[in-house]
Design goal:
Elements lengths: L2 H18 L15 E2 L9 E3 L1 H9 L3 H12 L5 E7 L3 E6 L1 H14 L13 E5 L11 H19 L3 E8 L4 H14 L12 H13 L8 H26 L6 E4 H6 L2 H11 L3 E4 L2 E4 L10 E4 L7 H14 L4 E7 L5 H11 L4 H4 E6 L2 E5 L2 E3 L11 H8 L1 H9 L7 E4 H6 L5 H21 L19 H23 L3 H20 L12 H23 L9
Parallel strand pairs: 5-6, 5-11, 6-7, 11-12, 13-15
Antiparallel strand pairs: 1-2, 2-4, 3-4, 8-9, 9-10, 13-14
Helix pairs in contact: 1-3, 2-3, 4-18, 4-20, 5-15, 5-18, 6-7, 6-8, 10-11, 14-15, 17-19, 17-20, 18-19, 18-20, 19-20
This protein binds one RNA strand of 77 nucleotides through helix 2, helix 6, strand 10, helix 12 and strand 15.
RNA sequence: GCCCCGGUAGCUCAGUCGGAUAGAGCGACCCCCUCCUAAGGGGUAGGCCAGGUGUUCGAUUCACCUCCGGGGCACCA
């Protein structure tokens, strides 16, 4: 019996208690999904529920009285071995080994689908993340979202949502012009322009552009700057794309800001906002009255000099996303953008949407990087950049991704690069991967012994998976769907990582005390076969979880 | 000044709607391989959950205040 099934069993039992009058509340006061948790203390049973305490107030009785009524109702339910009332009114429930053990077979048969659900079915998410300017390499600040954003998208997908990963290319505006001018200056051996870009990569880009087009330097200054900008843009964007590919982060679309301007998207969006009646002109500029919807101040769309603001692009981009049919636009932004939250929501409201439904902004706190106890500053100006590529070169994709994903994105994170490299073998990712490799090894050995656990003569018998360690492992496996669903709902993929660590621990503990394969001349028995099913189920769950995080599940280590 | 995030073991951090004795990894110390991967398992030490007030059967969790860190306030992009 899985926790999900147990929830249903308890919910039914509660309704029957109410019908029989043994619990004095109305059906409406019952929780639709009573909380079922796994107690830390094994003496408290396999599962526990606090529903009696929650109903005590409505029923105006002692929680233990309610717990007793529920316990009577649950006793005798197939699969339930025992029910005890404990403490202030907890109900501790024990599951029969056979009812718990069938999960091993269910998981193996579900295969890649184990853990998937339809809790978010019907929702279309646009998950936008990174969205760096194409004016430099991706650095560690982008890396956190490269890993976490991708994992959020995967987790949403596992929960049944329709998900697009999108990278918004800020390929328009002053920064792009500065970028072009900086490359041109480097190519011609001139000083870096004011506020321009420094760093070795600018010189590298300049050299590459000139190598591909030696005549570029003959162009008049204005044209040359644009030519360098466009050539540098193509190279830099390509490099970003390759970097992300190497980091196993793949986007469904690379959305160009320029395209919004080229195809009239900006005009259409402005028109839409006008129709909704939130646009006005003042001091020669055109404004959006975002203060109608909780923003601190109104925002300029078109400056007095008739230039469009970046904010105008933001509005057009939002309208464009909605036109493409996305029900929820997820923006994954850095902490330095938190001031945008209210104005983005105001944009949605100005466009006639309910921002509570269509916009969701997740703010990722900054990653502070240390090396040997000293802070490493990320400074494009100074040219000292810890790039995503550097990180991957140092610690590998799996370790880098996993390390970034296992912490919630909304808490500040300190990474010591030196430590990360030095202790790479102690990184939790290897602990989880090792469990997967270890199981793979056991299954390989079984195959070499000619032991056909899956459809051989000796049948799987769930009742044989009856030791404490086997029970722990089964319950850990059984938690996976709930963990994935809550990770999706809360947009917190770190829960999956932490869960995998717990699952790996449960497996290692099981392995330590439960012999799986027959040794020496021992005959193959149902216990061996049943434990192999349990191993296979564990491996499948580990693999599904790691895949969701974009981390590989190795057969050997 | 206003807004956002954080303060939990020596270090880095978990701990959805309030629950039983606050957890993990690393670091320290001690055990466990004639047998399926020891990148493993078991154990010891280490805590005023920043501080205060309130809400209640019960607060690390919720509310308010204070202190300490990080980030943000543009007709910049």
């Amino acid at each position: 019996m899985t926790p999900g099934e147990l929830v249903d069993v308890i919910a039914n039992a509660l309704r029957e208690c109410v019908a029989a009058g043994t619990i004095a509340v109305t059906v409406e006061e019952l929780p639709s999904a009573p909380v079922v948790e796994r107690p830390k203390n094994p003496e408290h049973g396999d599962y526990a529920t606090n529903v009696a305490m929650q109903l005590a107030k409505a029923a105006k009785t002692n929680p233990r009285v309610i717990a007793a009524a529920l316990a009577d109702q649950l006793a005798g339910t197939p699969g339930i071995a025992g029910v005890e009332i404990a403490g202030p009114g907890f109900l501790n429930i024990r599951i029969e080994a056979s009812a718990q053990g069938v999960l091993a077979r269910d998981v193996v048969e579900a295969a890649d689908n184990y853990g998937r659900s339809d809790t978010l079915a019907g929702q279309r998410f646009n998950v936008e993340f990174i969205s760096a300017n194409p004016t430099g390499p991706l650095h560690l600040g982008h890396t956190r979202w490269a890993a976490v954003g991708d994992a959020i998208a995967s987790v949403l997908d596992a929960a049944g949502a329709d998900v697009d990963r999108e990278f918004y290319i800020n390929d328009r505006g002053v920064q792009m012009d500065l970028f072009g001018a900086s490359i041109m200056a480097a190519a011609n051996g001139q000083d870096v322009p004011e506020n321009g870009y420094r760093g070795a990569y600018i010189a590298d880009l300049a050299a590459e552009v000139v190598a591909a087009d030696p005549d570029i330097r003959q162009l008049p200054s204005d044209e040359q700057s644009i030519a360098f900008r466009e050539a540098g843009y193509r190279l830099q964007l390509k490099q970003q794309q390759e970097t992300l590919n190497s980091f196993h982060t793949y986007f469904d679309s690379w959305f160009s800001e320029r395209s919004l301007h080229a195809d009239g998207g900006v005009e259409r969006a402005l028109e839409k906002l006008r129709e909704q009646g939130h646009v006005y002109t003042e001091d020669g500029a055109v404004w959006l009255r975002t203060t109608d919807f909780g923003d601190d101040k109104d925002r300029v769309l078109i400056k007095a000099n008739s230039d469009l603001t970046y904010f105008a692009s933001d509005c057009a981009y939002y309208v464009n996303k909605r036109d493409r049919g996305f029900t929820t636009c997820l923006y994954l932004l850095g902490a330095d953008h938190h001031g945008y939250v209210n104005r983005l929501k105001a944009v949605a409201a100005c466009a006639g949407d309910d921002p509570a439904k269509t916009i969701e902004v997740l703010i990722g706190q900054l990653v502070k990087t240390m090396r040997d106890g000293k802070e490493v500053k990320l400074s494009k100006r100074a040219g000292e950049i810890v790039t995503l590529t550097d990180l991957v070169d140092e610690v590998g994709v799996d370790a880098a991704r996993y390390t970034l994903i296992r912490y919630p994105a909304d808490s500040p994170l300190t990474l010591d690069l030196g430590l990360l490299v030095k202790r790479s073998n102690d990184n939790p990712v290897y602990y989880v991967q090792y469990a997967h490799a270890r199981i793979s090894s056991v299954l390989r050995n079984a195959a070499e012994l000619g032991l056909n656990w899956r459809d051989g003569d000796i049948a799987f018998d769930p009742a044989l998976l009856a030791t404490d360690r086997e029970g722990e492992l089964l319950r850990a496996i059984g938690d996976f769907p709930r963990v994935v669903a809550s990770a999706a709902e809360l947009r917190e993929p770190h829960r999956v990582a932490r869960y995998l660590e717990d699952l790996a621990t449960a497996y290692h503990r099981f392995y330590d005390t439960c012999r799986v394969l027959p040794r020496g001349d021992e005959p193959v028995e149902a216990l061996h076969v049943s434990r192999l099913w349990l191993c296979a189920a564990t491996r499948q769950t580990l693999s599904n979880g790691l895949t969701m995080l974009g981390v590989s599940a190795p057969e050997r280590m």
